[in-house]
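Input (Cellulose-binding domain protein):
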Amino acid sequence: MFGVPLAPRHAMIRQGTAILALVLAGGAVTACTGIIGGEDDRSGPGTGSAVGANGGNVTPSALDCSSNTIKPGDAPLRRMTREQYNATVRDLLGDDSAPANGFVADGAFGPFDSNKEAPVTSLIATQYMNAAEKLATAATANITAFASCAASGNDAQCAQDTIASFGKKAYRRPLSGSESTRLLDLFTTRRAQSGETFQSAMQLVLQVMLQSPQFVNHIETGDLARAKDGAAPLTGYEIASRLSYSIWGTMPDQALFDAADQGKLDTVQDVEAQARRMLDDPRSHDGIMNFYSEWLGLAKVLKMNKSTNTYPQFNPALRAAMAEETKQFVNSILWNGDAHLETLIDAPFTFVNGPLAELYGIQGVTGNAFTRVDLDPKQRRGVFGEASFLAANAHEAQTSPVHRGKFIRERILCQQMPSPPANANTSPPSADATTTTRERFAQHSKDPVCAGCHKLMDPIGLAFEEFDGVGAFRATENNLPVDSSGELVGTDVDGKFVGLTGLVDKLVQSDQVRKCVATQWFRYALERPDATDDACPIQGVQTDFAKSGYNLKELIILVAKSDSFRYRKIDTSAGACQ
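Output:
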C-alpha cells in the first residue's frame, strides 16, 4: 500500500483502499491474532447452569483451576466498533464529527457490539476511505497546529517526527522501522511533485494511516518471546488499549502510553493501578455506560415504536426519557451510590421527569428535568421495573411475555435460548379486547413445537403483566384482573412467585445471576464470547466478585487483572499460525 509509485491522488487512495479491504478480509497483518478453526461457545463456562430440554439443571463439569498454568482464550482480530471509531478520532484528532455514524452497522455477539466476525465489504472499505479523506483534510487545514515543526523549513525532519508521534497514537504503539520508512517515502514522493506542499503531502500520509489495518483494527500479537504453555502475555501497548477501550471506549491517554513505554503494564499490580486511575477519571462514566446500554438494550429503546391508538401517551420525548432514566439510575448507583449489584436489581428509587412521572403515576414532578423519586416497593423496584426494559421488550400494541422472559433468561441468567424450530409460528397472538395476555399466550404451552422453550420464558415474562406495553402499572387488562404469577425453573432459585417484586426477591438471591453479570462484563471487556479456555479465569473473577460484595466497579478491576485479559492464546504446534 505504501511502496507503489505515486499516482494521482484519488487513484492512489482508491488503490490503497482496495488493498486495505483485502488485508482486512484476509487477516494479512503482522501476525495472526487468534486460533484458526473451532466455534466459540456463547453460553460459555462459568455462566451458571445451562437449560436442559425439559427445563432442568444441566450442571457443567467441575473445574480444576488449581494449576498455575495460564489458559486464556483467543484474541481475535476485530475492527473498531462505530462507537469506538468516533471516540478514537475525537481524541486522536480533536474531531467530533462522528463519521462512523454513517458506517454500516456493527456486528454483534449476544447483546454486545463487535466486529470480530463482521465481513469487510467493499462498502465499509469505501466508507473508511471517505472518512479518512475528510478527517485528514480537516486535521491538516491548519498545518502548524497539527505539526508545529511545519514552519521550521526542514520538511523531511518535521515529517519524520510527525509520523513517529502521530503514528504512535494512531496505531496505539510505536511504529516499526519499516512502517516509518514507508510512510516517510510516501511523504517524500508526494512532496517532490510539482505544486505539492508539506500540508498536502502530510494530508496524504494521514489518509493512508487512517485506513490502515493497524488503525481500524484491534491487533494483539502478544509478546511471543515470553510465550509459555500456549499463552503469550500481551505487550504493554496492547494492555493499554484493552484497558482504554474497555473502560473509556477510546484510545489510550498519555499516561497509558507512558506506562507502556516504561514497562509498567507487565504485572497484575501495574494493570490494577492503571484501571483504578481510569475509573477515577470522569471519562469512565461514558465508557462504562456503554456496557450497560448494550447489556440492557437501550439502543432498542430509542428505536422502538408503539401504537398511539393503544398507548396515546407514547411519543419520541417519552421514549428518550425512558432511556435517560436508566442511564441516570445506573450512573447514580455506580458513581454516587454503593455500586452493588443488588441495588441495581432491587433499588426502591429511580429518576423521572414530568412525562415519566405521569406514566408512573408519581405526583409532584413536572418539566423535562430529571429528579430522584422513591417508588412504591409493592409495584416497582430496580432496573427491571423501569419503562426502558418493559417497553422495549413488548410489542407495538401489547406486552410480550416471550421477549421479557427471554431477556431475563439470556442476559441475567446467561442461559442461551435456542432459535425457534423452522416450522414454528413466531407471530404473537393477536390482541383481543376480551381476553388477557396470559390467556392468549397459553397456546405456547399447548403446542408441542413451542412448549419446550416457552415454558422457560413465558412464566418469567408473565410476571411483568402488571405493566403494559409502555411500562405503566395496571391492575386489570381489558377490565379483567391481571394474573402476574410466575415461575422459575432450571435456575438456582427455582420456584413460584408473584409479580415483578416476587421475581426481584429471587434474582437478588441468585448466585447464578451474580455469576452471569460477572461473565457479561468479561465478554464485553474482551469483545468476544467466553470460550472453554476462559473457564478458570472466569471462575476466579466470579469468586473475587463475591468477595467484593458484588461491587460492580470492582468487577471491572477483577476482569482487567484476569489471565484472559492480560494474555492471548497461541498455538505452538508445528506450522500453526502465530
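The CA atoms of residues 368 and 408 lie 31 Å apart.
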